[in-house]
């Protein structure tokens, strides 16, 4: 009777069936089944019908010998898993997402919500304080960004780099965020209530009389120094707490695949915070309506603050919508296209804005049919530019920027991110402020500088698009190397 091997397929055989131990030296469990004196359970023939088994170098058994054995029984006796037991146990999921991943994503989303809620209130308040303060004006902002904000950002980056070398990640996080909490608490309960006593108004007035009105901006920094300090700390909250602390933590505990899927969704909760914070600012700004009618006769920053609340709400709604589309953009078109959308939005809206300013007269007749003047149309386009560019930045540019850090080594992530987010961010703002200062001094006013500002915008946006294209090539190459290394490790 010819030998018959009853099996469920090759996968049910023990692993590595060609090893010498498996061929020439069967395991103890297999010997018991081959040479047992009693019939084997699950076998069609007993030992009496299997007179001998001869191993040969070129074959498993001698030709013409009768041998019947179920491979899965031998595998079980040898301690090997059966066919149904091979493979990893599926991890528990909720809504198609692994619970391990949810434990990371949900806390990160809540953190982003709270951080951005605070940042929106700080951002809407800082401009109101410094622009509407007594003895100050909007001219203070370019000087403030250049001569105060930038040096403090550079100093913080140097301090952060040194602390990163000696502190653990957890200790570094708390060491950085505690001074912010302490300052904003002190400002609300001490510095702001005492501002009339601690601001050198008389000295600033004397210096202004001597130096002339051209020094109104620099002198205002000294005049309202506590408000300027609040302005700088609010700016640093955006670059330090959001960019360095939060995104640094997120980049350390998430993979690139998780980032592509969930980073855009972080903004959903965050921009709900943007909407709520805008409504919060507007609510507190409108509390004065409950006061006597005489109060409205005096100038107040509340109208400015109320407008900023509406602006933040509109930005939050637009960003929320973009967040819903961002995951589709990442999945369908990839990192490169997503990174180019923000500069493209700025380019299109910027061209529309400057066209209305520079060519308002030829366009006036066409706009009159819609009941608008070129100036009013420019205001609407400018508002749309701010809203859509910010929404594109929050929903696409920021996730793209953070994804670019993930394939880098740990040291580059920590120190390089601090240098880019903390220094380059205010450096760009200070650079723009310096350009405005130079053009105002050269051409006499901001209105006369408009054509040249349009040219600067065009050059910078084109350079931005070129940089995004270059980074796309480098990022794709790093991702391929990372995937290749993972495949080699699995092999």
TrEMBL record:
GO terms for cellular component: chloroplast membrane. The chain crosses the membrane at residues 105-122, 142-160, 172-194, 224-250, 262-284, 304-325, 337-359, 365-383, 438-465. It is a multi-pass membrane protein. One of its GO terms (molecular function) is ATP:ADP antiporter activity. Pfam families: TLC. InterPro entries: ADP_ATP_car_bac_type (IPR004667). It is found in: Membrane; Plastid, Chloroplast membrane. Keywords: ATP-binding, Chloroplast, Membrane, Nucleotide-binding, Plastid, Transmembrane, Transmembrane helix, Transport. Its main location: membrane. Belongs to the ADP/ATP translocase tlc family. This is ADP,ATP carrier protein.
